[in-house]
Amino acid sequence: MKARKEEKSSLCGILMVLVAIAVGVAGIVYALSTHRRHVNQEKWKDYDECGLV
Predict the structure, then answer these.
(1) Distance CA 22, CA 50 (A)
(2) 47 within 8 A of 53, measured Cβ to Cβ
(3) What separation, in Å, do the N-terminal and C-terminal C-alpha atoms of the chain show?
(4) What is the distance between the alpha carbons of residues 46 and 38, in angstroms, rounded to a whole number?
(5) Rounded Cα–Cα distance for residues 9 and 22 (Å)
(6) pTM of the model
(7) In this structure, what are the phi and psi dihedrals at residue 3, rounded to the nearest 5 degrees?
């Protein structure tokens, strides 16, 4: 019974680590895409007034 509880606890710990890694990667991807979108908007900002875009 004790070995089964330790196994369950170990599996739960591994799952928590995997979830933490997935959340971290998702946050980094979101931050990079937001930054890239901002840079792209700034690049074309000067052309908004003249109607080229």
Answers:
(1) 43
(2) yes
(3) 68
(4) 14
(5) 20
(6) 0.62
(7) -65, -35
Q: Which two tokens stand for residue 29?
A: 């991807």
Tokens of 52: 């080229």
Alpha helices in 1-53 (DSSP H): 2-44
Contacts of 44 (CB under 8 A, 6+ apart): 53
pLDDT in tens, the chain (53 residues): 556 777 778 899 999 999 999 999 999 999 999 988 888 777 777 777 776 55
- Amino acid sitting at position 12: C
Two structure tokens written together for 25? 């990667």
